[in-house]
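Q: I'm teaching a short session on how sequence maps to structure, and I want students to see two examples side by side rather than one. Could you give me a first protein with its sequence written out and its structure tokens following it? Keep the formatting plain so it prints cleanly on a handout.
A: Of course. Example one:
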Amino acid sequence: MTVAYIGDREVGKTHLALELANPQSNHVKVIYPEYSILKTLLYNESQERTVATNDLLKIRKLQIQVDLPFGQRDLDIDWMDSSGESWRESWKMQNPEKWQIFLDTLRQSEGIILVLSPYRELVTKGNQEDFITQVQWNKRFIKWVYFFRYQCPKLSHLLLCLNKADLFCDVEQEANILRYSPNGSQLNWYQRNDYVFRRYFTSIKEQVLELSQKTEIDSIRYFITSIRNRDLIELPWIYLGTHLK
């Protein structure tokens, strides 16, 4: 089962994927490629930061194993690693073959994880000026709505992940509420989804409604993620492992 992993530029996709591959895991493991290989490719030890994406568009393959109460589930992931230029209309027109490969991969995906940055008004730690405003954020999401409506016909599960949660909430407190346990969690999937939506995603309620009404998407689910908390990192992947056919 193929899942696409995408997001805006400088949203933290690379660091999030690297932390997911960390061997110190709970219920989700990246079994290919190995963590040491990924770290060599994606992390600059001297600068202590992930390496910026030089390729305008690169599709990396990941294989993820999810431990569930009924057994292990493997997910094949197409990670659409791209710089900001690859989303511009001028780049698409100048690179039609590369853009077509990108689209063909997404069109075969039944699950998509979309990683989003927080908007300025939500950020309480760090420099707010590093982030776009809520109005700009909402307008950007409208473009994603259009993209999913017309370019992703097989999409069944869309997971919206608001990343860098450590900049806008107490991640330990939220993880205590949201974390997954195979022996029974504090919240079920419906309750988790409702909780996260009401706290962090209500500004795009109308756009999400449009997606639900005008596409064949079975479920749109909401998550917060942070490299500072393993439980939050794993939740989207556990959800997919549980719900993909």
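Q: Perfect. Now a second example for contrast.
A: Example two:
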Amino acid sequence: MSILLFLLGSCGWWEARKACEAAHESETEAWASLDAALVAAEADAAKASDAGAEAAKGIDSALGSAVEGAPPTQPYNMAEMAQEAYSRASRLGADAKEAEEQARWADYTLRTEAVAADADRLAERAAREVERLRAWREAYNQAAVALVMSAAHYQLVVRPDDSETWPAMPLSLASAGDLPEPNPEDPAAQAGRESVEARREALKERRDQFSTVIDGADRLAFDTERASQIAVTRARDIDYLDLPTSAQVARAAAMQAIAAGGRASEAAAKLKTAAAENRALYEGGDPPVPGPVELARNGALDASKKVKELCQ
């Protein structure tokens, strides 16, 4: 009886040992798959960051050209307009009072049309600035992904061969900050660390560019909202001018300014929200983990968990 129990126990021990060995093999394969996914994701993210930066610079150039090509606001001189209207009225046999009245509502019309045009111009630029932010955000995000992937790959490269555990792999910017020094006699480790530092420099460049764009977006949102308020205030001034009912052009300009002010206010609000969201990402957000890497990481962590369960 005791011999039978011994044989049964031996069989159980052997099966447990084989299961443990198989789990270790699966674990090694799973972490190798994760490493391959990290290398591929790093390369893809670096290319995407460069492409995104080029696209963003194209938007920058287009915006700069649009601003440079915008017609300047014309300074309107009330005295000159009054003199011109007076001369015209005199030629037509009208009196000076009528000339002054015409000059007054003509001046209001032109000034109101000018502030409405400024509001619309800034509203359009604010809408483009949201697109510009989106492009620089993608360039920054991808540069961050490249750094995180590079750092994770480096952690696997420098992992001691006799280590019984694998890295936790949080895949965050924080985890890419404090890395072990490479073995000077290990070319793979040296190359891995150089790659990490190159990605770190690339991300710093993207951060600087991204920060500049965010600051500019904040200023533009303020300017656009201010232009909106000026346009609306200018439109409402018509109530205090006591203009004649015949001054329909002036009243149309007032309605145009109110509409332009509304468009500018809406564009400013959207840009302000976009700038705040991007600033939050810039100040502490982690980039999204690529799908293939997330799947490979989960598989590797599950494989390590199975080893702990079967090999205790």
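Q: What should students look for in example two?
A: Point them to this: DSSP finds six helices and no strands in the chain. Also worth mentioning: The longest helix spans residues 2-69.
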